[in-house]
Amino acid sequence: MNIRQFFARPTLWGALVLLSLALAACGPAPLGTGWPAVSLLKSTCGDETIESIVVAYNDRIVQVNPADGTPIVLKDAKCENRPPDDKGNLRAWDFRPTGGKQFYTTPVSLDNQDMLAISYDQHIYKIDTTLATATNPEGRTIDGYSGHSVTDMVADDKFIYVALNAKDVVALDRTTLDVKWKTATEHGVWGKPLLVDNTLYFSSLDHFLYAVDANTGTQKWKLDVQGAATATPLFADGKLYVGSFARQLFEISLDGKILNQKPTSDWIWGTPIIDNGILYVGDLGGNLYAFDTANNLQPVWSQKVAEGAIRATPLIIGDVIIVGARDQKLYWIKRADGTSVMGADGKPLVRELTAPILSDILLIQPGDGVDIPKPYIVVSTTSTTQLLAAYTLDNGEAKWSYNFQ
Question: Is the pTM of the predicted complex or chain greater than 0.70?
Fold first, then answer.
């Protein structure tokens, strides 16, 4: 594997991340080399609907109560709490397959009772969301493929789409998990594919953005984005938006033509977000950008908001943008000009955590199954002693944190 071919004038942190994963592609990755994958899950146990945060990291998958950060209690088939352990503690929902498997990706929900999870070494498990057990305890590998999995799977009513970090994307039968088709790439796919109207869009380290028929895998087009790309494309108003390691942001038509492109100061790793016609995206130099999508991506503003890389998609809440960075900090930023929101003490509203923030921020809303008075945000870090942390939106008040037990 020629690592240099992946890069377009690499930054140090990005190069180290890519190098560590590329080297791990030949064998198991050591614990702590990845990042936590987090998502919200609605599941049903009897007549009760449960909303939980699912965290997949290192050797386990857990469910956490979004209201208070406590582990979801493990139930039996009758939806009653399992007997406590020998110390009298209720048992937590905790899935850990045998063989020291590791997880970089969040499970994909099949229905209100089951989800699919894929380990780094490409073992797929069908897991009961109540019982935390797999119907296939040994896991199902993808026939004929040895690549690893570092990005989320995508599901529709027929297929499960899996991107592999060495190269290629495959579609599996939703029921049997047999390979139904493959589409080839020259290098790895590290960003979650995007499914829109029976077309699958995905970026690759081979410098191309691909569009393939989701039913057959037949390539519709591929477009050179001038550098390695790890982001899931954003679809908005009939167009695609994606950044690359060429320090470029692209606006692309659905037939694969570049409509506009704008430079950034550093690599773009994450997916942009658009709100009210303004696109926001961060780069690995800690810069945050706003572009006007109604005016050929004309820059609205750019600001250096963090000392570390911004990998996650910014979260837009009203007039505020919340940004997590690799410098272990969470920033509250004004949408109008990218400057800091000031806290009650007259200083920039910033919260420091114990480890880098690499995953997207979750917005937790009050509602069915979530007993909180007002919305929270939840961020994850790479530290198992502060894996999740919840804060209020308005003033960054810490509400709870969760660590691996």
Answer: yes
